Description:
This protein is an all-beta fold. It has strands at 3-7, 10-13, 18-25, 33-39, 46-51, 59-60, 68-73, 78-83, 92-99, 114-115, 119-124.
Amino acid sequence: QVRLVESGGGLVQAGGSLRLSCAASGRTFSNYAMGWFRQAPGKEREFVAAKPWSGSSTYYADSVKGRFTISRDNGKNTVYLQMNSLKPEDTAVYYCAAERYPYGDLRAARTYDYWGQGTQVTVSS
């Protein structure tokens, strides 16, 4: 079993930055891909970014490419989402997720095995 807890959300002005963290715990945590998704009121859950356990591969939604960066520290069992040049359209609850190996489509929420409770990000205009 894996437990995921997000933190770092808050209220920022447009153009500002935030860094979200997702701490993973559990004896089964090993070789998990990690992803970030977001959901705004009245909207479907949307893929943001993902990164496998090892290697340099990363995946980003077109809407955040060039502004957001996903990274991870496997020794700390933590994944991060650095968000720069934030826009009001980025306002949403942000969720982290973990997927066991072998991986499926890392852009698809339905393939992930574990989810955090989410952290609110609000960007004012």
